[in-house]
Amino acid sequence: MNNPEVSFETTSRTQIKRLPQRGDYDRETVYQILDEGLICQVGFVSEGQPFVIPTAYGRIDDRLYIHGSPASRMLRTLQKGIEVCVTVTLLDGLVLARSAFHHSMNYRSVVIFGTATLVETAEGKLLALEAFTEHIIRDRWSEVRPPTPQELAGTLVLSLPIQEASAKVRTGAPKDDEADYALPVWAGELPLKLVAGNAIADPQLSSDIPLPDYVQNYSRSCT
């Protein structure tokens, strides 16, 4: 049985059935993928209809936070305590095989199941909003104006416990059929990664404000 301090216990929903050797239930692996990603896909059912909505998120310890306008159908639905499925995927490369059938991608992904709850206190909202900001770009929160009471009142924040979760990871070269290795076709990996371009200052920015180091040296890698 998995050590709950180190790994997530597998459930009927999180156990990897297709290519189970790619499954990873290690807590550190799951959190590293979440911390490197930027967008999650939130899946839920509302009035009998399935929805999958992309949104930003933040993590504090073993909880994932999402936020938005109180008018958001997704947030209004989730605060009712319905089951939700959240996924995050990082694309690390294209895998080019000798046959069309065995082309693939190298990736790291996480799936979380659970029930989100409403964050009701102003203190809790502030902590979550700081997590969102720091998740996007570290060291930013200490420099910007914090939310006003009116802005906090106009923001709905939901908390999802990270208790039922798993990761799935593919790395390495293509897996060709033995007979295809002799084909005169190039095969291998084409690595991909998210990189930042040159920062573009706001036209209304004062010329005496320098570019922060955390912008100049921005990276999504958590390794």
Report on this structure:
The protein is of the alpha+beta class. It has one domain (20-216): Electron Transport, Fmn-binding Protein, Chain A (Pnp Oxidase, Chain A, Roll), CATH 2.30.110.10. It is built from five helices and eleven strands, in the order E-H-E-E-E-E-H-E-E-E-H-H-E-E-E-H. The protein has helices at residues 27-36, 73-78, 122-136, 149-153, 213-216, and strands spanning 23-24, 39-46, 49-56, 58-60, 63-68, 83-96, 104-115, 117-118, 156-161, 164-170, 188-191. The strands form two sheets. Strands 1, 2, 3, 6, 7, 10 and 11 form a seven-stranded antiparallel beta sheet that branches. A four-stranded antiparallel beta sheet has the order 4-5-9-8, covered by helices on one side. A hairpin with a 7-residue loop joins strand 6 and strand 7 (104-115). The longest helix has 15 residues, at 122-136. It is globular. The mean pLDDT is 93.
